[in-house]
Amino acid sequence: MKTLQIVTAAYRCNIEEQDDPVLWISQAMKAGGADLHLLLEGQAVDYAAKGQEASGLSFGGKKQTQPPRIEDDLKRLVATGAQVFALDEDVAARGLERADLIEGIKGVSRADLARLFAGYNQIWRW
Amino acid sequence: MTKKKLTLVMMDAPFENARTVTGLRLIDAAVRRGHDVTVFAYEGAVALTFARQAPHANAVHGRDAAQEDHPLPKDWIASLMEDAPRHGGRLEWINCGLCVDERGVGEAIPGAKRGSPADLWKAAEASDNTLVIGTR
User: Fold this and answer.
1) Residue of chain B whose Cα is closest to the Cα of A77
2) Residue A89 dihedral angles phi and psi, to the nearest 5°
3) ipTM
């Protein structure tokens, strides 16, 4: 079964979880043999940007030593064969250029979404 | 800087929303400046101080439990409670008792108290201002 995971909500609980839960479960299912791919849209297209840095948090004497590394999570997904798409219009709306995105992330326009969806058995919108 | 009394209402459950960390950052900023802060945890936020939160290993990250060093809201809050007196202030944490019962999270970290909406009102009346960080 080939699925497309659509990620829209971003930066929800990344600091507490030290990752994004949708990217996390996608990696976990992928490691178990799932044929899954991702579409980043809305705020989640920011996940495709290079050079993300979320370190430095501390409360009182409690420092966070393993901040979320979304860029690495996405690179790992790409490296394991997942196709990762970012919606062109949402990328452009945030002032991001192609060169700002992690290597391996593919662009897709809103007009081409139906054609993209047709290539999957199931679409999961998180 | 004049010492202030501040009340915050938090509503989101742990591990759900960036608002939780934002709220804790605001509390951190206030206690570092020596202000007295009262937090009223309402609805899902009562689980923020649940004592049985536990860290775990993370195979996806390729780290064991020690390497993962998973942050737990209860530890962040305990750390803020410890830190506040060092700066001349205090952090009082009140959990809505009925919300605690609904969720079965009565086992709270030391210092987190059980209270009611009356305690929120009392704290707000005694405060210079109140910030509600509501669930959306």
Assistant:
1) B60
2) -60, -40
3) 0.78
Sheet hosting strand B90-96, strand order edge to edge: B112-115, B90-96, B36-41, B5-10, B129-133
Tell me, rounded to whole angstroms, the distance of Cα B23 from its chain centroid.
8
Closest chain B C-alpha to A126 CA, distance in angstroms: 14
Low-confidence ranges of chain A (pLDDT < 70): none
Residue B13 backbone dihedrals phi, psi, to 5 degrees = -70, 155
Inspect the interface and report whether the beta carbons of B17 and A12 lie closer than 8 Å.
yes
Q: How far apart are CA A38 and CA A99, in angstroms?
A: 20
Averages of pLDDT over each 10 residues, chain B, 136 residues: 94 96 98 97 97 95 95 98 97 97 97 95 95 92
| Distance (Å, whole) CA A85 – CA A79 | 14
B55 touches chain A (CB under 8 A): no
Q: Whose structure tokens read 């001349």?
A: B88
CA-closest candidate to residue A47, choices A75, A18, A17: A75
Beta strands A35-40 and A2-7, pairing class: parallel
| Residues of chain A positioned with their CB less than 8 A from the CB of B76 | 59-60, 62
Give residues with Cβ within 8 angstroms of A9, minimum separation 6: A42, A43, A44, A126
CA distances from B43 to A16, A96, A126, B6 (A): 19, 38, 24, 20
In this structure, are residues A48 and A84 in contact, taking their beta carbons and an 8 Å threshold?
A: yes
pTM metric for this prediction? 0.86
Q: Which of A20, A43, A62 to mutate to test the interface with B (most CBs of B within 10 A)?
A: A62
Q: What is the pLDDT of residue B60?
A: 93
